[in-house]
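Hi R.,

Here's the chain you asked about this morning:
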Amino acid sequence: MVLKKHEIEAALHAEAQAISAGKLKEDNPLDLSESFRIFCEACRRGDLKVCQEKITEGVNINARDKFDYTPLILVNTFFSIFPESAARILCWNYKA
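And the predicted structure, written out as C-alpha cells:
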C-alpha cells in the first residue's frame, strides 16, 4: 500500500502529538548530557574502553546528539572498515 503525501504528513503529525502528550515514547530522544557527549566522542574515535564505561553507567545508546546522529551511526563511520569492532562497542554488556 502506497500512502499519499498528505496521509504521511498526517500520520507524522499524529505521532508527534502522541510523543508530546507522553502517550508514545520517542525511539531516539535528543540527549545533550555531558555523559552522552563523551560517549559519542568515544564512538567517533573508536575508543572501546570509554564506550564500555559509558554503557555501564547507563548512557542511552539509542539517543541522538545535537547533530541528529546516534552512536551507531558514529561508530559505523569510524569502523566501516572493521565492522566487528563496531558491533563489539554497541553490543558490549547488552541485556535483552
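The two ends are 33 Å apart (CA to CA).

Let me know if you need anything else.
M.
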